[in-house]
Structure formats: C-alpha cells, structure tokens
Amino acid sequence: MDLTLSPSEEEFREEVRSWLQENHPGPEPEAGLDEVMAFRREWQLKLHGAGWAGISWPKEYGGRGATMIEQAIFAAEATRQEAPAPANVLGLAMGGPVVIAHGSDEQKARYLEPILTGEEIWCQGFSEPESGSDLASLKTRAVKDGDEWVVTGQKVWTTFAQYAKWCMLVARTDPDAPKHQGLTYFLMDMEQDGVQTRPLVQITGEGEFNEVFFEEARVPDANVVGGVGNGWAVAITTLMNERAGLAFGAISQIQNSLGRLSKLARETRLNGGSAADDSYFRQRIAQLHIEVETMRLNAYRGLTKTMQSGIPGPEGSLGKWQWADINQDLTELALEIEGAYAPLMRGAEHALAGGSWQYGFLRSRANSIEGGTTDILKNIIAERVLGLPRLR
Amino acid sequence: MYFDLTDEQQAIKATAHDFLASRFKSERIRELAASESGFDEGGWSEMAELGWAGLALPEEWGGQGLGIVELAILFEEMGYALAPSPLFSNTVVGLALAFCGSDDQRERYLRPLAEGQRRGTPALWDAGSTAEPGRFTLEGRSEDGATVLDGEKVLVPDAASADFFLVATSDGRRHMVDAGASGVTVVPEESVDLTRRFSTVRLEGVRVAAEDTLPGEAADYFPVFFRACVMLAAESTGLAQRALNMSVEYAKDRQQFGRPIGAYQAVSHRCAQMLLETENSRSAVYGAAWAADAEPGSLPLSASMAKAYASDAGWRVPDAAIQVHGGIGFTWEHDLHFFLKRGLTNAAILGDARWHRERVADMVLAAEPAPSAS
User: Fold this and answer.
1) Among partner residues B69, B354, B365, which is closest to A276 by beta-carbon distance?
2) What is the pLDDT of residues A91-105, one digit of tens each?
3) Which of A38, A53, A168, B351 is spaced 20 to 30 A from A383 at the CA atom?
C-alpha cells in the first residue's frame, strides 16, 4: 500500500502545475454561452499546442499516452487551479476514445485531429424523451437508403448541440431485433437541414442542454462506428470512459467548493460569532470533509484496481452516486448557513457570497439524474456488485 | 501509487480470516457470551502463537514489527469474525509502552505482553467524569517517591482477564498497576456487548513505585490514541462487512410474494447503501493506517475521519442488516444483534463520531482555502 506518487509522477505533476500557472487564461467571461465557447476554443488550442488535449489518447493518434494516474493528476490539478474546460469536452472524453476503440482507419484519419484542436465540436445523442434510464428502448429510427441512412426522431439533454459539428448518435436500425441488438452508432453531421436544435431551459433558467430533432436527416454508411447492430456495445464504452475520466476532476471541484463553504461559514454572522463557531454547522462541515476524503480514497482504490484489471468495474457507480449526494448536501448546507439570505441570488445587492450558492444548489439537483440516475446506479450496484437478483 | 493490499498483506488477511472463522463459529461466540468471564484462554494462546499479541510492536521487544496497515487488516478480520478477545486492549497498552515507556519498563511489561505471556488493558476514565479522550480526573498522591492512587476507573475493557492495568492520572501520566496489587478490585459491569465487556476498577491506596510510572507525558500518548482509533475503526469496518454479507445472502434466499426479497428495490437499495458505507469506512481506515506508517503528520486528521465515519457505519450497517432480515433479525437466536452491539460499543469509546467530527472541524475550518491560481 502506497499513497505517494512515484518520482516520475511527481515530476509530471510539477510539469502540469507550472504549465497551468503560466498559461492559465483567467476566469471565463461572464457574458453569454457564445463568448464562453469562443474562450474555451482558444483555451483548447493552447492545450493542444502544448500536448495537453486528449492526454489519455495513445500517442499515435495525437494524444499523450498518459497513464491513468497521470490523467488523474492532470484532472485534479486543472480543477484545483480552476482552469477552464476545453471547448470540445465530449469529443475529447468520449468521441475520440470511441473512434480509437471502434472506428475504421479512415474514420480515425478524418475525425481525431479536429477533436483535439477543438475545430469540430461534438455532442452526444443518446437520451430521448421516452428513453431516459431505459436507454436501450430508444426509438429514433435510421433506415438504409442506398449508401446512406435516413434518420428520424428526437434526442434530448444534448449538451453543446448548438455548437456541434458531429453528434454521437445511437439510432434503431432493426426494429425487429431484441432492443439491445437493433441499435447502431453513427457519426451524424449536425450541419444539415434535417437537424434542428432547440435549447431546453432548465430550473436554473439557463439553456445548457438542447433538444435535437431529426427529420429525414442523412448520414452516410461510412459514418457507422463499430458495425450495424453493435450500437449498444459501442455506446457503453463511451459511458465507461465518461465515468472513469471525470472522477478526479469532480473530486478536486468538490474540494474547491469545500474551501468556499468554510469561507462562507467563517464570514456569516451567527449568534454573536460566525457560523463556523456553531456546533451544528461544524458537525455538518466536518462530515462533508470526511465524505469527500472517503470518495477520494475510494477513487484511488478503484484506480489501483482498474490499472490491474484493465477495465473500470461496476464499483465506479459508487463514486458517481456519492459525488451527487455530496454535491447536493454541500449546496444545501451553504444555503442553510446563509439562513434568511438564501432567497437572494446573483445580482442582488445583499446576496451573500455574490449569490453563487443559489445557482449551485439548483444546478446540483441534476447531479443525481445526469450521467446515470442515483436510483439506477443503486440497481447496478445491487445487481452487479452485490449479485442480488434482478427485478425484471 | 498503489492503494490496495500487497501480496504479503493479502496473506495476513487470509490467514486471519481462516483462523478466526474456524475458531469463532457462532456456537463458540455464544458460549463465550454466556460464560462468566467472556474470555477464551485457548483462543488467546493460539493468537499469541500466530504473533498477533505483538503484531505491530517493535521486534526489539518481542513483537513482529509490522505496521499499522497490517494491524488494521487484522482488526478488520477480528470485527468480521466478531472475535471476543482482549487483543484490542492488549495492543493499545503495548503501543503505549512502545511509545512512552522506558527500556526497563519495556523489558518488564512490553516483552511479555508482545509475546502473549501477560495481558494489559488501559484503565483511563474516571467514575463521574465525561469519559472523553484525554480528560482524566484521578489525582495521584506523591509519597516517598511513589505515587498513591485512590479512585475508580470505569469502562475498562477486558479487565477480568488482564494481568496489569495502564492507569491514567490527571497530569496525563500513565502508571503500570498489577491486577493483583494490594488495593485493586475489579468489578464487572453489565455491558450491552457480551463479547466486549467493561469493568470498573477500584483503586484504594494503590502504591505505584517510581519505576512503574511511564516517562511519557500527556501529548506523548496522542500517537497511541490515533492508532487505537484506527484499530477500532478497522474492527467496525469488519463488523459492517459481515453484516452486509449476511444481508445479501439472506436477500437472495428469502422469498416473499413469490420472489427473493433482494429483487425489491426497497431491499436492494438498502443493501447498496450498506455497501457504500462499508467501502467508505474501509477507505478511511486504510488511508489513516497508511498515514500512521508513512505520513504521521496527517494521522491526527485521517484517524479522526476514520473513527468518525466507522463509528457511524459500524452500528448503522448492522442496524440496516436487522431491517433486511425482518423479524428473524430481531431475535436473540440470530447473530446480528451481537454485531449491532459491538458496533454501538466501538462507536461510543475512544471519542464518538461527534467528538471526532469536532476535531475534524477544528482542523479543516482553521485552514485557509487553497489560493486560486488565477
């Protein structure tokens, strides 16, 4: 058992740390999403120029071939320094890895470079209005027409669809096959009349996600990834990649939030002292620190296991569940500390902490829904980790 | 970075698991629980032969010289097996002697303890006090270079089978007192957990010769205390793991409404929650045990985190297990109540979850947030 970094890992961390310190572009613009995306595109170009885009990708495809520990170090350090996200986060974390794992040589030559540079933004077309947790029941149809497929249907919760050149689209190509077997994974060109996107306004008031409508949209046969009928298996790889890659960044983010929470407690007056002197708040803040530490250590144990076995196990579901719980608890506690000032949000003259926790509270409501709901994760844990019988 | 057990550590775990499973079957635990002393002399000799009495004590003084990680692995298995044994109290005294004793005291007390020949137990808390870590009220009286003790120590674990006591006084010093010394009376108390019992130890004009007072001062015992917290947290993790395993087996087997109850989400999600708490507890314990061996500066924080988390999980998971089992889980006949009771006991002693969270709050709220890079 050894929780220290090796000398070469330490060296890697120093390299990441100092590069980020020298090249950090400052905070993201507070203007609209268009400005933010432009800012992030520029940041991604800079990352790519220094070899920090797609660090998990093999070197032959333009990545850095970083070990899992190096990926974890990079994610943790970038978040700790509050570096912006790259513009093409979905292409880097999911699209590229899927093309590398399942794509043809032609597809690799065509798609990978523009993902790394951020020239082409990617989005993911999985969820549908009637297929959320039961993803395999999705109904968007793709019908063969010569050497093309004609796609009709609707996707939802599609992040960055309005900026995306490519959509990782899972559609039903064989309605008669069992539901997991009739699906195919396509790379759909979003720049065509048959594809319309519409922002979906969420409870925070923003439109972070979209609905995407396909009305006889066209996709060439050459854009099938992993073969017709294999869409489910290909899609599962992307989801695995999503979970494994995000954990360490997410943990650093929560550590940042804990720091801000302590600051809020110290600065919020209560009973002649501050909230940081109050025994109830002290207990809850301590408990959050303890849970974040267990999450961090669980992630290291998981990483050690994955490095030995080569594939992330179903235990990863525990981390995602725990992350959602902690993030929600943390923002709830912040509003509790703010007390009667909790109703004032960003823009209000008398809002506490600039009104940032109100957004955090609202946004975190989705944490137990997005990327696998907590209820479904508990099913996965019960069935695949504990071996309990399935209800279905 | 390798956050898992090494092959040697796996071997220690497997040996401990197999030995304890064969010695402490349910019937044997029940016999011991029903017996007057609650103590298993034969089991103790075997543990001593395996080197467990001195597992993490210095080789120089008869121990095995292994680390706190290995000790935590052993105690996780002790909890899993619900072994009724004075190994915990004995190890705490061993660590106290190793950290704070003189060489002469180590020769006289630590060596026989590490070799399993004599057993010691800590007698720290005073009747009528809050029994919080580090708060002792017994005043020693100086008399011709000796210290005379008059008082009543409560919550002394495994006192009935101990050969000597490590007695704390209000100045934070510790004194070795033989169980047979004049003026010492051991009164067994009714304890919730029949597999870990407490006694009251009365001290009436007990004379402690100067050479039996440890040179260590109050703060010198902090490293011992944190290590003891890690051991106890490890044991509670083992309790949780066993209660979880029993629940999963039962949920697969027990049929209601024509299917196994584990197919219902009300049951399976409860089991998932038990797994989460057990795994968190284990990670916190391993993290703290590793810190004890490799990064002692971070031990005070990580030990309090582990003790706080495992204190909760150690009784909540067995409690949830009783709910999964339904009526049968509430019977004396089923073993689960022993796990709940041990968990409850472990949660209460050496600082409860609230006490340790307060320490964590002290440490984390004092720290300024990390400066942002931008």
Assistant:
1) B365
2) 999 999 999 999 999
3) A168
